[in-house]
Amino acid sequence: MQALRVHEPGEPRDVLRPEEIHPPRPGKGEVLVRVRAAPVNFPDALLCREMYQVKPPMPFTPGVELCGDVVEPGEGVTGLAEGDRVIGGAELPAGAFAEYALMSADSAYPAPASLGDDAAAAMFIAYQTGWFALHRRAGLREGETVLVHAAAGGVGSAAIQLAKAAGARVIAVAGGAEKARTASELGADIVVDRRSDDFVPVVKDATDQRGADVVFDPVGGDAFARSTKCVAFEGRIVIIGFASGTIPTPGLNHALIKNYSLLGLHWGLYRQRAPELVTEAHHHLTDLADRGLISPLVSERVDAGSLPDAVQRVAEGSTTGRLVFRPQTGTGEPPHA
């Protein structure tokens, strides 16, 4: 089969290369899947750079989530059968940027019938992250105002749709006119182009100086610092990541004085410590998809030849919506075929 693998750390466009290798074999509790679609995520770039918290042995295949068909259940797997269409996380080092990948059976969920392969694949990590951030961590209530940073990206676009589905008002911050238009099309009530406008006075004006009830922040850096200036009394800032490259060092006296909360979200820990909550969220998200309230924005489909550049562009923050890898099948057969 063809897989894109990393042999040494570096920039994705330099180190991610296609190879012909044997398909992996499922171990105990794993399933082998034929990859239908695999979205590009920021962690894929961090994996290439060896900067992610998970460091698989080299050489490895990145690709942390997918939509695919079960080909071969491993030992002890129940509830999954050959041909089942599933979404979920890939088991590194046999990631999703290949014709075949491995998944833990516990991390494979039925793909929503209402979504095609690309959108279904893109629903897993981003929408799970958005769901846990808004509902479990922030306790979002109908009628509240949510400030969403990086609103045209993967998790930001999910947060817009999920917040609107919950009956909230959304103020979206995006970088550039094209991304601002995308955020508006996704349903944001107010959109701020951070390259030309300051979101702080916009938030204050839109809330009669009260501020945003919830801040969804996957950016960090200056986005976080300025969000503390427009968060509401008893507001909640959910810290999801640091795409800016700068990890804030907040003055906790400010949180004390303004009575707001700083909430961390490492969604991957829920998969380890409370997987039943991930399953519950999957059911909620599937229902929202079936009702047409959420639908991942897939802006580009890429093949093996263009995938390294796609991962690089996601790392640089120059993309809008989700980029999805579609493998060219037929160059390799599963082990039992």
UniProtKB/TrEMBL annotation:
Residues 11-325 form the Enoyl reductase (ER) domain. Signal peptide: none annotated. PROSITE patterns: QOR_ZETA_CRYSTAL. Residues 1-27 are annotated as: Disordered. GO terms for molecular function: oxidoreductase activity; zinc ion binding. It comes from the Bacteria. This is NADPH2:quinone reductase.
